[in-house]
Amino acid sequence: MTGPNQSITPREAAAGSFDIIIDIRTHGGSTPTLPGALLITAHNLTSDPARFIPNRDAPVLIVCDIGMRSLTVVEQLHGAGYVASISLEGGMEEWIAQDLPVVTPEGLSTAEFRRYDRQLKLPGVGVAGQLDLQRARVAVVGAGGLGTPVLAYLAGAGVGNLTIVDSDRIEVSNLHRQPIYTTQDVGAGKARAAASFVKALNPEITVTPISERLDSSNAPDLLAHHDVVVTCTDSFDTTHAINQAALHHRIPMVFGSVYRFEGQLGVFDAQNGPCYACVFPQHTGGTSLDCSIVGVMGPVTGVIGGMQAAEVMKLLTGIGDPIIGRLHLYDSRTQILDSVHIRKNPACTMCGLLTP
Ligand SMILES: [Zn+2]
Questions:
Q1: What distance in angstroms lies between residue 317's CA and the mean position of ligand 1's atoms?
Q2: Segment 301-310, tens digit of pLDDT
Q3: Are 101 and 134 in the same domain?
Q4: Please, which residues have CB less than 5 A from ligand 1, an ion?
Q5: What percent of the chain has pLDDT over 70?
Q6: Domain CATH for 259
Q7: How many domains are contained in the chain?
Q8: How far is the CA of 260 from the centre of ligand 1 (A)?
Q9: How far is the CA of 353 from the centre of ligand 1 (A)?
Q10: In 3D, which of 7, 117, 133 has the Cα closest to residue 52?
């Protein structure tokens, strides 16, 4: 039974506008499809449409080979209340016959749908957000108290390319706050041990361990071709070197630090707010935050590291508002999270030199 408004010709579809285009064919990612189309099987789509179509009124174009199965799927979708879904008449055969534009499709494998199921259900993630995460390149500088939770969550989320920069070796005194390492790992290099953990957690992603100390001389090279850098170091000098390279590459820097029972969190993006040096000028130096001297409560690094990972995911998917222009202050003794507004310093020697 074909109702009205259940199919559309290729010419009409090419002239139309759709929130989502779904190609339900199952023969892999090498077959040309419509630009912007997501590969989702008919079974996955009809068993849980809300996972892929967040809004029931959203115009959705369903595509198959010749327009038969897509029509069946559209009938099912209409029955489920997705009344703006429509089938491509004649399918890809007719689309290609009319010489309309095609691309090689992108999509998620069945294994990826299973792995990321709980995340795919989030408003704003879905297949498109997951693909954003999978295409992303994120550098994590420091694989210690902050870096280990950051890496665990980003790897779990499927951030496709992770670079881990750390020259240190694992010490037994690290283990109270660096839960991806075990007692057996003591003595191993952190970058490599963290990379092994990441690969074991999620074999789908690419991880690059760099067992070097980042400084201002190598930071621009190490951080080139990344979308976001996460600072998980207790060194002011290293953080300033990362800030400088982030400014150079025009990428946001997700900053975290801990001091005994307290932590700080910020997202510095000089295109839209202050840079790290606007708030913490280099000449102020600062007291040492070295945990070996002042001590640190382990879970504080997990709280701040978890929030850093969330900020990275927000930046990569466009969900929510990254905390640009604010510095969050957390105190585990009271469990109070306070926030300070921070502004660009017109006299900043770092981002002040940036050309617009
Ligand atoms: Zn600045």
A1: 25
A2: 999 999 999 9
A3: no
A4: 275, 277-278, 348, 350-351
A5: 93
A6: 3.40.50.720
A7: 2
A8: 27
A9: 9
A10: 117
